[in-house]
């Protein structure tokens, strides 16, 4: 009963088998191998255009390097207050932009509010030397609160940013979970909605350690290979990243994995809403669930061996009022979560309610 995070499990067996297969024989190093070529070709298909894609080993590297490509040291990156880049990356975005400033924007349920974005941008007129210059907007899809932007909402925020000359980044650590929940195409949820650079996550949804930084405009990627190398993210045996990404994408495997994870979250949500005293912040669409658990339920679940994080307020105050005897928790499902895990969790909760 591990609902701590979708990186608590290993890789999809198909990805591991691909790694073993790629282990045989010799291939050119540094990403010039046949597996990486294949992965880039598959990404072109997925995004229905010629993309510039670079493979890195962590989501933090992917976000920080992507932002570094579109933000000068004197720039401002606008993101939600709860964004992973602002709270969970130890200053990597600041470091890889060589000092840009992250500016938190308001919005309920982890989503940037368009009016709040317009408002904060108006406080940064271009050319004011004493202020950082607006350079980029970063959106998380899915958000850190487990919510999703629909394509229209992404397009609206991207248009506000583009009007001011900002480039738009998407932190897609859970891109696949969001995509299958919304039911649009990958191109619609990114390029066609105005995303310029995408951190395309794979690790949490079945890869071992692989994320892609994807540029839809080749010009924005002009210096990226050098930035990647300086950051130590050009893997010598680059085929190990290419092989993961190729297996992840082939035959829509990534979408199947995400559907599994999302289905488990829906089952968990169905089960928990029937437990007296348990309240969900909102009905999950992806693979993250936030719930207020009465303390006795929390204690019984812990005792039964369930793992999950207690969540600080982190913006949930406006969605869910906690009683003094409630604990706010985050529950995350993955492609490897079994229906039995979900049933056992719900029945342990019910037993204590
Ligand atoms: C997990 C996650 C990342 C990437 O984190 P790493 O631990 O560096 O791989 C980035 N953004 C979001 C929203 C995440 O949940």
Automatic annotation (TrEMBL):
It comes from the Bacteria. The keyword Zinc does not apply. Residues 2-280 form the Aromatic amino acid beta-eliminating lyase/threonine aldolase domain. GO terms for biological process: L-threonine catabolic process. Catalyzes the cleavage of L-allo-threonine and L-threonine to glycine and acetaldehyde. PANTHER family: L-THREONINE ALDOLASE-RELATED, LOW SPECIFICITY L-THREONINE ALDOLASE. This is L-threonine aldolase.
């Amino acid at each position: 009963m591990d609902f701590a995070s979708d990186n608590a499990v290993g890789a999809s067996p198909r990805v591991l088998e691909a790694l073993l297969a790629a282990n045989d024989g010799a291939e050119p190093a540094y990403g010039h191998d046949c597996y990486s070529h294949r992965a880039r070709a598959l990404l072109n298909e997925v995004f229905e255009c010629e993309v510039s894609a670079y493979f890195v080993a962590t989501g933090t590297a992917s976000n920080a390097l992507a932002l570094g490509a579109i933000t000068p040291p004197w720039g401002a990156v606008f993101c939600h207050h709860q964004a992973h880049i602002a709270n969970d990356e130890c200053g990597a975005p600041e470091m890889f932009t060589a000092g840009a400033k992250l500016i938190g924007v308001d919005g309920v349920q982890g989503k940037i509010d368009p009016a709040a974005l317009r408002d904060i941008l108006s406080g940064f007129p271009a050319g004011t030397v004493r202020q950082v210059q607006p350079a980029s907007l970063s959106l998380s899809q899915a958000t850190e609160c487990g919510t999703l932007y629909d394509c229209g909402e992404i397009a609206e925020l991207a248009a506000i940013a583009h009007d001011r000359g900002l480039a738009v980044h998407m932190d897609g650590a859970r891109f696949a979970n969001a995509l299958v929940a919304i039911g649009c195409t990958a191109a619609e949820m990114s390029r066609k909605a105005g995303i310029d650079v995408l951190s395309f996550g794979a690790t949490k949804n079945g890869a071992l350690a692989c994320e892609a930084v994807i540029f839809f405009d080749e010009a924005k990627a002009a210096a990226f290979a050098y930035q990647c190398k300086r950051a130590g993210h050009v893997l010598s045996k680059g085929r190990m990243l290419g092989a993961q990404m190729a297996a992840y994408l082939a035959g829509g495997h990534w979408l199947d994995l995400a559907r599994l994870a999302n289905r488990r979250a829906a089952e968990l949500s169905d089960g928990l809403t029937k437990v007296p005293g348990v309240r969900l912040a909102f009905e999950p669409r992806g693979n993250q669930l936030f719930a207020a658990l009465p303390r006795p339920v929390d204690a019984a679940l812990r005792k039964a061996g369930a793992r999950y994080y207690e969540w600080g307020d982190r913006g949930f105050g406006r969605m869910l009022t906690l009683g003094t005897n409630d604990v706010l928790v985050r529950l995350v499902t993955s492609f490897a979560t079994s229906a039995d895990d979900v049933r056992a969790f719900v029945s342990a909760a019910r037993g204590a309610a």
